[in-house]
Predict the structure.
Amino acid sequence: MRVFAAAVLSASLFTAPMLSQVQPFPSSFKSQTISTNGTQIYVRVGGRGPGVVLLHGYGETGDMWAPLAARLSRDHTVIVPDLRGMGLSSHPAGGYDKKTQAGDVAGVLAALKIDQVDLVTHDIGNMVGYAFAAQWPDRVTRFALLDAPLPGIGPWEEILKSPLLWHFRFGGPDMERLVAGRERIYLDRFWNDFSADPKNFAEASRRHYARLYARPGAMHSGFEQFKAFDQDAIDNRTFLARGLLTMPVLAVGGEKSFGPMMAVVMRAAATNVQEVVIPKSGHWLMEENPTATMAAVEDFLRAAPASSRQGEQRLTVGEIGALAKGGAGAGTSGVAGIQTTTLSGDPTKAGPYTIEIRVPAHTRIAAHVHRDDRTAVVVSGTWHFGYGTKADETLTRALEPGSFYTEPGNDPHFALTGDEPVIVYIFGFGPTSTRYVEVAADPRRPGQ
């Protein structure tokens, strides 16, 4: 089926409550405020071993991570900041774009003299974490993202259509006046609508976070986080044009929230993505099903060291250019002139694969299907892509570099190029195959 992300945050089908409330960090954790990047970041640090940074999202603070921090501190140095403008961090006038906030994280790590880290992030923390990983990929060993999209990446435009996300455009002086003194009412809307069952977000936790968001400047700063999404989308498309993330990525979705959509989002941004769906949970994974959430994150972080795993790759543009090029082989439409490069895996065998296809200008690819579900990212050129049983230019959508689309298994689709060649990266799970719906236009037929 095609990606219909507008309803991924549905809070229907309520489940049995799993009450949780804010817990204190272990007494071994130390708190400090670090001045960096034009702001002051409140951070908790504890444990010993490889570094792991935990980044929270809107409606919460770093306090949400206390149970996981306690467990990870047994064999990690755990760093838990409050994002700028949230919790006990300061409220600067600007800098709420996620690229700048990634610089906040870099400054915290510099002050703590920590180089490489794992990242575990939720909600807006996902966006800050991605900006950090995209700018400093050599500093991130593993990256776990929990239940929120990335501006400008994958099905972002479809996600924006959800009526549940009206708060993305809610802000400004009048809105702040409406919310002033009513912070709890505003925040209850998030905790209720984005839970599988509102009872899962405990009353004690609601009071705790409502007090923090009622601090001077806190609601203004929160609105600024959302206001920056347009700039975040621009920055993320620039990051994506430089290449996909190559470190191991864990995409975690709540069953009644993003679910498997998290993996769809991240496969548009990374080459090595694992998928986990947390049962009996909406968006607030650490509140609604902390046991399953922490187990998934711990298993991911404590997997075999990256140096001992097979399949890890880092390919520069020059290295990709030097790889062997084939014709329109497995996983392609078979149209003459198309060049194929296998970047990872093997599309003719069972397992995940990634291929690059280079399509000449003025190429028409008739309607066809593949047996496997595939996702794709346009790297260069304008790709005119459409769904249907017959290639019709009026049914295509012009996808510029950085655009994302899906090719669901056995769903007919077609494509055209204009005056410029196009490069596309396609991700699937082999063995793949190609069958033409417009049989007469199959380029593999004798006489074609």
